[in-house]
Amino acid sequence: MRLRAALFALALSSLPAMAQQDQATLVADDLHIRNDNVLTASGHVEVFYQGQRLRAQRVEYDRGRDSLTISGPITLDDGKGTVVLADQAQLSGDLRDGVLRSARVVLNQQLQLAANEVSRIGDRYTRLGRSVASSCQVCASNPTPLWEIRAREIIHDEQTRQIYFDRAQLRFAGVPIAYIPRLRMPDPTVERMRGVLQPSLRTTSDFGTGLKIPYFLPLGPSRDLTLTPYLATKNARSLDMRYRQAFNAGWIEVNGAVSRDRLQEGTRSYLLATGQFALPQNYTLDLRVDTVSDAAYFYDYGLDQRDRLESSAEISRTRRNEHISGRIINFHSIRDGEPNSTIPSLVGEATLHRRFTGGPLGGEAGLQVQLYGAGRSSDNPFDTDLDVDDIADGRDTRRASLHLDWRRNYVLPAGILGTTLGELRTDIYNIDQDAEYAGTTTRVTGALGAELRWPWVKAGTNGVSQIISPVAQLVWSPNDTKDIPNEDSTLVEFDASNLFALNRYSGFDEYERGARLNLGLNYTRLAPSGWSFGTTVGRVFRERDLDQFSEASGLNGKNSDWLAEFQIMMSEGLIITNRTLFDDDLSVTKSELRMQASLERFDLAAGYVKILADAGEDRQRGLSEMTVDARYRFTDAWAARATSRYDFDADRAVRAGIGAEFRNECLAMELYLSRKFASSTSVDPSTEVGLSVDLLGFGSNKRPGPAGTCQG
User: Fold this and answer.
1) CA–CA dist 170, 188 (Å, integer)
2) Chain segment 113-144, per-residue pLDDT in tens
3) Where is 111: in which H helix or E strand?
4) How much is the average pLDDT of 652-670?
5) Which of these, 73, 75, 68, 80, lies nearest to 4 by C-alpha position?
6) CB atoms within 10 A of CB 475
7) pLDDT tens, 156-190?
8) What is the rounded CA–CA span in Å between residue 338 and residue 555?
9) Are residues 19 and 161 in the same domain?
């Protein structure tokens, strides 16, 4: 039924309107009929019809013409994200056709299209005469928007969700900066549609000034391709590509580029691909492919830095008490001075790990079975060590391991918590191309331990809680085990997480030996105001020095270095964490400080690391480095950012950068300047300047910022 029937039913019947889909509902302060043909409603008029809502001061319906004459202010909401505001209107009875004067069209509460006259055509098109488009706030005190597009004609196609501009002119602060005869853009409701994405300007000392213009190509509901040509003034040309596809059981994403520039001859390129798929029985398949033409490519083009490439395929399943995985990995090094023939380029691994509770011994137990193989492409015979790294260049290794662990807790008098624990591991190694270790070797290792914890808890009258817990752990392991070449346990981190571990090596090739006493003290303070403090202090005392650990690990010698960790958390959003290893002379072996702050206007992520030089960890000089990433919001719209990485040992900056950000309801802009101070022989220092501008309101994936205050 048409709107006219519903309106006259309201006027001529005392019954309320039926809430059916083809009927309209009319609400007004006053309603009367003239000559049995014209219905007039006035005073806070509201009409609801097929999902549309019309609000006006006066509505006059002529049954003979099937037309509505409306006096404003008028608000017409189609229920699909489009709102039309006008002073006067002449519409058809179904609200689908007609003309609105002094009108604005608001799309998705973002983009506004304004014109003296707006025509509605069918249930699809909205046409505006000479018009202005902008998502910026405009009012009497701020009549000129930050940006606007002026056009001779604008047509909004509600079905395809496209906006067409005829003879468009882009203005910033009222100043024309670009003229485009024909322009098509998606409306704000569009999430993915073919077309040009936000361009960016990038200036570097290597390539000069260049422009990136991404072009998005949807290839169906589950696939898309983004092509980004990059042209720079110093003869640099590049084409970036990103391909994404979703499947019923997974997804893939491929990123890559092909480039030519003056830094190196020939074509340069890279490819990074990842994927994940769900398999039967809750298994997951993860895929990864990394490849690059040369070691300097990532650095030169401002991509994520990586010095070893990894391509892999892994099938895994993780349940509450079970983890199963199998993977194959290919490593390719792009480090200076590291030949790929002497690193384990092909690695295969299969793992089964299960946890158990109860049983004849009580407590909790675990079973881990692992098969491992690593091959090098070098075929140098046996004991050749050309790169002097104590690893035979051509060594190939295969290993089968069985690991059992068990622990059980007991509550003793006076609240003391006692624990007995132990583990047993059997490894079978088969090694080729190594004169010293060639052949098959079987090794059995393990440990037994007993632990006592005595937690003391104090609750103050002011709501402060304090917990102090001294811990003593006695561990015994055999002093001698069969010697196996160490490839996966060269780096050992000594911290609070493994202070009371039976074995501090993360891999399988080494196992901590000898009798030792692990002592520690944990303290925690919790305040009702929201801040907390926690610290751990500990040390390892050994029966004898078996020369197992490197100096920089902090575990070498008969007694380890002192371990001291603390963390402070403030309710205001400040977190400070520190870990330090130092000896009896208070000489620092390793120190790491992290600070994070998320305050009202200030964000900070800073860190400092100090580590001794240690040839055993392949570090020929000490490391003393600080990183800072800070952001300060001057206003709700303006923010500044600064980043820095400084090497105190080399007394030079590694990188530095500053930037400014602006975002309001209609514009997002970022300007940055960065400098990389390279020390590698494969790359040179470079400076980069970048600018990106995003006009919010045209399908942008960025959230609008705060709108300014408007008066008048």
Assistant:
1) 18
2) 888 888 888 778 888 888 888 888 777 667 78
3) strand 111-121
4) 89
5) 68
6) 23
7) 888 888 889 999 999 988 899 888 898 888 877 77
8) 28
9) yes
Contact 264, 296 (CB under 8 A): yes
Write out the two tokens for 706. Answer: 């705060």
Structure tokens at 647: 């090497």
Burial group, residue 515, by CB count within 10 angstroms (0-12, 13-18, 19+): middle
Looking up tokens 């790491």 gives 592
Spatial distance between the Cα atoms of 474 and 494, rounded to a whole number of angstroms: 17
Q: What secondary structure does DSSP assign to 616-641, as a single string? A: GGTBSS-EEEEEEEEEEESSSSEEEE
- One-letter amino acid for residue 314 of the chain: E
CA–CA separation, 648 and 612 (whole Å): 13
Provide DSSP, 694-709.
EETTSS-SSPP-PPPP
Query: Where on the phi/psi map is residue 232: left (φ > 0), alpha (ψ -120 to 50), or beta?
Result: beta
Same domain (yes/no): 189, 331: no
Q: Residue 230 corresponds to which tokens in the numbers above?
A: 């990059």
297 three-class SS: helix
- In single-letter form, the type of residue at position 543 comes to E
Task: Judge whether 218 lies within some domain.
Answer: no
In a domain, 659, yes or no: no
3-state helix, strand and coil shares in percent for the chain, rounded to the nearest 5: 5, 60, 40
Domain ranges, residue 348: 327-438
Are 607 and 594 within 8 A, CB to CB? yes
Of 415, 438, 461, the last residue of a domain is 438
Structural domain includes residue 82: yes
| The pairing of beta strand 532-542 with beta strand 638-647 | unpaired
Query: 119 forms bridges with which residues in the sheet?
Result: 99, 127
Q: pLDDT tens across 534-578, in order?
A: 999 999 999 999 999 988 999 999 999 999 999 999 988 899 999
Instruction: Give the DSSP letter string of 465-529.
Output: EEEEEEEEEEEE--S-------SS-S----STTTTT-S---SSSS----S-EEEEEEEEEEE-TT
Number of domains in the chain: 2
Instruction: Answer yes or no: are the C-beta atoms of 618 and 627 closer than 8 Å.
Output: no
Q: Are 105 and 86 in contact (CB under 8 A)?
A: no
| Of residues 677, 676, 645, 671, the one with CA closest to residue 658 | 671
What's the pTM?
0.79
User: Which has the closest alpha carbon to 524: 534, 516, 532, 515?
Assistant: 534
Rounded Cα gap, residues 448 and 107, in angstroms = 70
Q: How far apart are CA 138 and CA 111, in angstroms?
A: 12
Closest CA to 198 of 674, 669, 688, 673: 669
* Contact present, 157 and 134 (Cβ < 8 Å): no
Tell me which DSSP letter residue 139 carries: B
Q: Which of 413, 438, 463 is the last residue of a domain?
A: 438
In a domain, 150, yes or no: yes
In which element (H, E) is residue 254 found?
A: strand 250-260
Q: How far apart are the first and last CA of the chain?
A: 43
| Alpha-carbon dihedral angle through residues 476, 480, 483, 486, given to the nearest 10 degrees | 30
Burial class (CB in 10 A: 0-12, 13-18, 19+), 449: buried
> Token digits for 540?
């390892």
The CA radius of gyration of the chain, in Å to the nearest whole number, is 35
**DSSP assignment letter at 601:** S
What CATH number is attached to the domain comprising 52?
2.60.450.10
Cα–Cα distance measured from residue 135 to residue 129, given in angstroms and rounded to the nearest whole number: 18
With a CB cutoff of 8 Å and minimum separation 6, the contacts of 615 are none
